[in-house]
User: Fold these one by one.
Assistant:
Number 1:
Amino acid sequence: MINTRKAGATDIADRLPAPQCPSSALANCYEAILFDATGTLISENTALPGAADLLAALNVLGPPYYIVTNISSGSNEAIFTRLCRAGLPIPAVDRIVSAGGVARRRVLEELASGRQVSYLGSAHAAHQVFGQHPNLHCADIGETFDTLVVLDDEGFDFKRAADHILSTFQCRLVELGEMPRLIIANADKIYPNGQGSLVFGPGIIGPMLQAGLAPFGAPPITAEFMGKPGRAIFEESIARAGTDRLLMVGDQIDTDIKGAKAAGLDAVLVSTGFNGRVCEEENSAPDYVAKSLLQIFDGSLSCQQLPSASD
């Protein structure tokens, strides 16, 4: 399988040789590229048009790239396997920067301090990401908890869990005058499914809780965002790449683009997913808009004036 992927990358490189890739092409203007997964490279478990070709070319010609994803349904190894099976020629698991992986350190801190932690997601995902711990429980069965961590909506009853979580937050608010801590790995409120329509994502739990608790005088709910648009996942990406001269490529304004801009990175909005609109807020607007992933490589999008490495 490894030899097949390398051969495929060479074939793509033959069609896109380095001399024909303009020096002003986006791929040549940054020291590494960050790609969103769902809606940008894949739809469910299938690679989107141009995604495999682009990654294969980058494998040979560079620059290096990382998959920066809010997918939190398993470990980085499980996500790597899933993306490779979708047809993406990702060279190694260290190219995966997942929201669940970033949340792991924070959740282990909560457990080490003796707090009861419940997770919104499947037991399989939680045990892959965090391991097993006597103070770690699924949110739809735990009677109470000090911290709620939002993982993913794959493989469990989201509605039942949301109802139970609402009751737990309400009881704690009434009895103690405070609410549990909220750590959000996957902050996606919506995402495209394989049929071209939209579905609610796990990040919708925050607004749902705020609306449900409003009649009880609940204060604004604050959350620690481990995934996009939070800063933690971008800090991990910068550390992994060893540079902050990065380009974020994604299809969602509210997570990919806003998160990258807040972290001081340039961003490309691609229309491969569901979000083709361009944000009018200056601090959240993408630096580039692309209709095809291959525009990052073919020179049809030119670099903006970037500072040199010595600046």
Note: The chain has two domains: 2-70+228-298, 100-225.
Number 2:
Amino acid sequence: MIIVTGAAGFIGSALVGALNNAKMKNIVIVDDFSKKEKEKNLANKNYTEKIDRSNLEDWLKVYAKDVHFVLHIGARTDTTEFDKAIFDELNINYSKMLWKNCVAHNIPMIYASSAATYGMGEFGYDDDHAIVPKLKPLNPYGESKNDFDIWALAQTKKPPFWAGLKFFNVYGPNEYHKSRMASVIFHSYNQIKEKGFVNLFKSHRDDYKDGMQLRDFVYVKDVLKVIMFLMENKPASGLYNLGTGKARAFYHLAQATFDALEIKQDIRFVPTPEDIRDKYQYFTEANMKKLREAGYTDDFYSLEEGVSEYVRNYISKENYL
């Protein structure tokens, strides 16, 4: 039996689909299932039980002995939320509860950390455990993820295998419900369809041209492949970056979206809002050495490949993973 938390959300629902494709159907899905806009994410998925996230702790008291793996993808991910109590409850204490159950019942665990833990990148983007206590996330979401990473690394009792995945800028099918928190690709597509052009932030630094701010954009299908690899191979436990290892510009992303739509490019620039200008990141790029040394050899989708497939096969056809 496999538990997937956040199973109605973007990565969680896509992961349930990936497990199904690998002939795994004895899955317990966990989430807040009250949000109707997420229902399509779980259409045609196979699972054995559906549990509201508030009931999981009690459920585990009875059935934890039957669980073979915990995939803890669920979290509060809104980077504009500043109520620390929400993050303490959902991202820290809930994760601790799952960790302790995995320790008590010898269950392997993979959980979602985040590249938001790296803040402005003062210490680089290396998944080195030594830098974790030094990191300075820019918002309560990133702080909550880093706080749990710090707690996990400090534990003397750990699951038999565990991995905290520092997701970089994930995009792809099943994110349609995320509204303002959806990927830039998703928003670019909709802006082009509605207005025929894309607005990108101007650069407010002399060393970056407009639109050339860089991010490590990773296609959700690659995220799923890495999770399946870790489940199957269980390399050394610890934190792992999950990006592509190659930063690309927002300008390139917009170009790829226009190309996928076969529409003439019209890319415009607007000032970065002053309230976020001082903390706006101009560069993120995952150091993927640790995952490669753990034995993961598959190529990642290039930005152009991922955007083309996403736009042509999913968004434009309202298809889901």
Note: The CA atoms of residues 22 and 228 lie 9 Å apart.
